[in-house]
Amino acid sequence: MLIRFVFFVGFVLIAGVLNAQKLYTGIVVDSAKLTNLPGAHVSVKHSGKITSTSVSGSFMIYASPMDTLLFSSVGYIT
C-alpha cells in the first residue's frame, strides 16, 4: 500500500513539473532602428496561443520552458 502511495505522489509531482507554464514578458523591437514594434504578433509554436504587443511593444504570454516563441509583424520576416 505504501508503494502505491509513493508512486502516486511521485507521478503527481512529475506531471506538475512537466506541465508547468511560465509567464514570459518582453519588448519586441526593430533590430536596425531599435524602436518598439506595436501590434506585432507573439505566438507559442504548435499551441494556438497568441498575443499582440502593446503600443510600447511589450507582451506577456504563458509558455513552458521547452516551447518556441514566434514573432511576426507586417513587413518583417517571422
Your description of this structure?
It is a single chain. About 20% of the residues lie in helices and about 30% in strands. It is α+β, with helices and mostly antiparallel strands. The protein has a three-stranded antiparallel beta sheet, with no helix packed on it. The chain has a two-stranded antiparallel sheet with strand order 1-4. A hairpin with a 5-residue loop joins β2 (about 40-45) and β3 (about 50). The longest helix has 17 residues, at about 1-20. The chain is globular, with a radius of gyration of 18 Å. The relative contact order is 0.22.
**What does the average pLDDT come to?**
82
End-to-end gap: 54 Å
Number of strands: 5
Computed CA radius of gyration, to the nearest angstrom: 18 Å
* Largest sheet, strands/sense/barrel: 3 strands, antiparallel
Helical stretch count? 1
Give a quick rundown of the structure.
With 78 residues, this protein is α+β, with helices and mostly antiparallel strands. It has one helix at 2-18, and strands at 22-27, 41-44, 50-52, 58-63, 69-72.
